[in-house]
Structure to design on (125 residues):
C-alpha cells in the first residue's frame, strides 16, 4: 500500500469514528431531552393521556415513550453523514409547533459535538 493510500485510509477511519461518536452523542442527548415524564392517567377507554398541558417552548414530554423509542440513527459513511431517524410522525409535529426539541438539543450541545469530532479527527481518541 502506498504512503498516500495509507494516509487516506487513516483519514477515512478517523472521520468514520468521529462521525459515529457525534451521532451517538446526539442521539443520546435527544433521548434525554424527550425523557421528561408528563403527569398521566388512563382514560375509561384505556388510552393514556397527559393530565396537564405541556409548557409552550419546552420539549415534548413523555406519555407512552413511543416518540423517544422511535429515535434511531443510520450512518452513511460513503457520504460522510449520519441520519437521525424520527419514526413517530407526531414528534416532528412537536418540533415544528410549540415544542421544539431537535434543533434546541443540537444547538445546546454543538460545541461539545465539534470538540468530540475534532478529537477523533486529530487522533486523540
Amino acid at each position: 500500500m502506498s504512503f498516500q493510500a495509507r494516509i487516506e485510509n487513516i483519514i477515512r477511519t478517523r472521520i468514520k469514528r468521529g462521525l459515529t461518536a457525534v451521532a451517538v452523542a446526539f442521539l443520546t442527548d435527544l433521548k434525554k431531552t424527550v425523557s421528561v415524564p408528563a403527569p398521566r392517567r388512563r382514560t375509561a377507554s384505556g388510552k393514556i393521556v397527559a393530565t396537564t398541558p405541556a409548557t409552550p417552548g419546552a420539549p415534548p414530554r413523555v406519555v407512552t415513550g413511543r416518540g423517544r423509542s422511535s429515535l434511531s440513527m443510520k450512518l452513511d459513511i460513503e457520504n460522510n453523514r449520519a441520519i437521525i431517524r424520527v419514526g413517530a410522525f407526531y414528534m416532528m409535529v412537536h418540533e415544528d409547533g410549540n415544542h421544539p426539541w431537535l434543533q434546541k438539543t443540537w444547538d445546546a450541545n454543538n460545541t461539545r459535538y465539534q470538540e468530540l469530532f475534532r478529537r477523533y479527527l486529530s487522533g486523540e481518541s
